[in-house]
Amino acid sequence: MSIAVDIHNATKSFGDKQVLKGIDLAVEEGTVTVILGPSGSGKSTLLRAINHLEKLDEGYVAVGGELVGVRVHRDRLKELSEKVIRGQRARIGFVFQSFNLFPHLTILENVIEAPLSIGLGSKADIRQRGRELLAQVGLADKESAYPRQLSGGQQQRVAIARALALDPELILFDEPTSALDPELVGEVLHVIRTLAGGGRTLIVVTHEMGFAREVADRVVFIDDGLIVEQGTPDDVLANPKHQRTQDFLSKVL
Fold first, then answer.
1. Fewer CB within 10 Å, N or C, the chain?
2. Is residue 171 within 8 Å of residue 200, measured between CB atoms?
3. What pLDDT digit, counting tens, does each position of 185-216 carry?
4. Residue 239 exposed, middle or buried by CB count within 10 Å (0-12, 13-18, 19+)
């Protein structure tokens, strides 16, 4: 199986605090990787580095064999232009924990805004595709509503439809249920489960252990900027080898 995401020596500091300490991770194409770890362990920073929302101090990320955000120039990594980086990000869907919908646009307009802006087909075709995506996440009847008129779970499902609108090869989820009331979590996880069965590559930062056990092909446990343990859900969640993993799971399971 080919490698969808290759992370090499990912290192990042904010001021005096080193958040990522040289992480190496390979994610296989068409798989679901769940990243677990305590707050402040570096999970979200690593996820944001994959599409270059965070610039690494050292190391690199490659998606589909192509370096993201940088190119090799005279044996050094040189930052790409913002225009080129935006083009790369179009291949990588990102679902944020806080939805990040445009409040002045309808639900359908939110979903189709990106494909319209880069001219990904005719307006009629893009609108039809947007409606299909809203139907896919169970919101076909909400296309004319505005974000403020929806529940948090519905807004997050719109955010997932928007991430799908550019037909990305990779989708990143940064704690997609953490801002939701408990009774709304299930509807969002149901949509992600459906995507997981569709052959896309997904990387999900989450605290939802049941979801990780059920859906993940691989679970990665990060603590203090390092990968402590990784393996199948059975390996990591049922039979953790490292004390730090055991301590974390004893608090959340």
1. N
2. yes
3. 999 999 999 998 888 999 999 999 999 999 99
4. exposed
